[in-house]
Amino acid sequence: METQQEFTLEEIQKHTTLESLWIIINGNVYDVTSYADTHPGGIDVLLENAGKDATNEFLDIGHSQVAMDQLKELFIGVYKPTPNSSSNTTNNNNIQQPQQRPTQPPQQKESSVPILPIVIGAGAVVLGLAIAITRSITKK
Q1: Considering just the CA atoms, what is the radius of gyration of the chain in Å?
Q2: Which of 77, 121, 123, 138 falls 20 to 30 Å from 37 in CA-CA distance?
Q3: Cα separation, 55 vs 71, whole angstroms
Q4: DSSP assignments along 54-104, one per residue
Q5: Strand (E) or helix (H) holding 45
Q6: In this structure, are residues 98 and 49 in contact, taking their beta carbons and an 8 Å threshold?
Q7: What is the pLDDT of residues 14-72, one digit of tens each?
Q8: Rounded distance between C-alpha atoms, residue 140 and residue 130, angstroms
Q9: Bias category Low complexity: which stretches (predicted)?
């Protein structure tokens, strides 16, 4: 098993600018500096979560599988709690315990309703109606 770099909250909190931007997701630390300019949600959301745990924000927004796969490339280590971590910081009450280097991206919250078949079916119905209306108009 390879040794992973461990970072304290104090170290992570030093990386809150566009020149060096780190976030914590599920106890893992990611350097998102190189991704900030191309982040579809904009730079501001990354800056708002820089230097702290962004697990809830990341999962709540509904990121694509591609976005979750990109996290593997941005992984730099794991969060290592210290006795001082929770007493002298704010907005970090939800930091999750570190995990091993991610082999799988964080899991999105799954819907119990399969959306894709519904969307495809609705599209087929609309297309069928459009064709039927077009045919009835051209016959007149």
Answers
A1: 22
A2: 77
A3: 12
A4: -HHHHHHTT--HHHHHHHHHHEEEEE---TTTTTS-SS-TTPPPP-SSPSS
A5: helix 43-49
A6: no
A7: 999 999 999 999 999 999 999 999 998 899 999 999 999 999 999 888 888 888 888 89
A8: 16
A9: 82-108
β-strands 75-79, 28-31 pairing: antiparallel
Put residue 35 in one of left, alpha, beta given phi > 0 → left and psi -120 to 50 → alpha. alpha
Please tell me whether residue 13 adopts helix, strand or coil conformation: coil
Residue 36 has a CB neighbour count (10 Å cut-off) of 18
Sign, CA torsion 37/42/48/50 = negative
Domain 6-108 CATH (choose: 3.10.120.10, 3.40.1190.10, 3.50.30.10, 1.25.40.20)? 3.10.120.10
Residue 108 in 3-state DSSP?
Answer: coil
Nearest alpha-carbon partner for 107 in 53, 55, 35 = 55
